[in-house]
Amino acid sequence: MVVWGLISIASYGQDETDTTKAWNLYRPQQQINKDSIDARTKFIQDSIQAREQFVRDSTLRRKHILDSLTFLQGELQPLLEAIYRTTSEDIITHADNIAIIGDSVLGDFVYHKLPLILSEPYTPWKGRLSLNAKQIHFSIDQETKKISLIKGPSLLCGLSYANEGMIIIIHEDYMLQKNSSGNFFRFPLDSVFYDRYKQIVKIKRYVQFYDLLPNNRKGALLFTNLSQVKQYQYDTNHQMTKYELVKFCDRYKAYDKNEVCSIINYAVSKQDNTYQITRRNNPENEFSDGTFTLEFDEHENVKSISFRVLSNNMLKWQWFVELNKEGNVSCYIEKTNGVTGGTRCMIYHNEPNAKYPVEIINTYFEKDGVDYSQTNITTGKTRERNRMTLEWGPWK
C-alpha cells in the first residue's frame, strides 16, 4: 500500500503541468508581433492608396497635356498656313496635318509649295517649322481662348481676330529703317480674309511708319502704306486655281500716292502628280511670261521642273532632281533637248563643327558632253579639267 501510494504520487508529479516552462510564461513579444503586422498592413494600405492617387494624378496630367496639345493642333494649323502665305511669295498649295506624337509633343508643321526655280539644298519645295516646346512658345488670350502670340527662332507674330474669326490680323516684328529715304520705326501689319470654307481668299499687307526717336524709340504714327495684295481662287475640290500678287511701290511720305508697281497672275492646274503654273505679268513680259511644269513623286518630292515661253511655246530650260538617301537634293541636272548642260550638286557636312553645313558645286558641260570646269559657290574656288588627260586640277 505504501509502495503503491509512492508510485501514484510520483506519477501525479510527472503528469502535472509545469508552469515554470518557457512556453507557459507571459511573453510581451506576441504583442510586438501584432503591432508590427498592423504597421505593415497600414503601410501597404497607404502605399496602395498613394499608388492609386498617383495613377489618378498621372491620368489627369496626361489628359491635361493631351487636351492642350489638341487645342494647339487645331488652332495652329490654319494660323501657321496663314502666316507663311502672308510672309512668303511662294505658291503654297497645302500643309500636312500637325501630328501629336506619343500624346506628349506636337510634330513639325510642314507645308508644300511650288518653286519656280530650283537651286537650294535640302528640299526647297517643302517648308518646315519645329513645334518643339523648347523652341517655340505661345500665348493664349484668356478672354477669347485664342492664340495671341507665336514666338520662335525665326518667327514672331502677334495675332488678333475679327468678324468671328473670318479675318486674322497678323502683327509682325518691327524693323528699323535708317537710310537716305528717312529714319522710321516700321511695323508690318497684315489682314488675312477667309471664305465660308475657311479658305484664304485675300491677304492685304500694310506697313505702319512711325517716327524714329533717339535711342531707337518709337514716336508718333506718320502714315500707313499698303505694300501687297494677294488673292486666291479655288475649284470645287478646294484646289488652288488662281493666285494674283499685286505689289505697291515704296513710299516714305504721307502725301506720296500709293501706286501699283507690278501685277503677276498665276493659273495653277494639277493632273495626278504634275502641276502646271502659267505666269502672266501685267504688263506682259515676253521673257518672264510662261508655263512651269513641276513633276512630283509619290512622296511629294520634285522630280523635274521645266519652263516654256508663252510667246512661242519654246522649251527654255528643264532641270531634273536627284535625291540622296536622306531625301535631300543631291544634284540638279539641267538638260536641253536631252543634252546635259550643267549640274548643281550638294555636299552635306553633318559633323557638328563643320565650317560649311553644305557646299554647292556648279559643273559646266560643253558640246562634247564633258565637264571641263567646276565652281564651288560656297567657297568661291574653281578648278579646271585638263583637256588632254581629263584629270582635274586643284581648287584655287
Describe it:
- With 396 residues, the chain is an alpha+beta fold.
- It has a domain at 50-138.
- 18% of the residues lie in helices and 46% in strands.
- It has two helices and 24 strands.
- The protein has a 19-stranded antiparallel beta sheet that branches. A three-stranded antiparallel beta sheet has the order 1-4-5, covered by helices on one side.
- Strand 6 and strand 7 (146-152) form a beta hairpin.
- It is globular.
- It starts with a helix and ends in a 12-residue tail after the last strand.
- The model is unreliable at 1-17 (pLDDT under 50).
Highlighted features:
396 residues, alpha+beta, 19-stranded antiparallel β-sheet, 3-stranded antiparallel β-sheet, globular
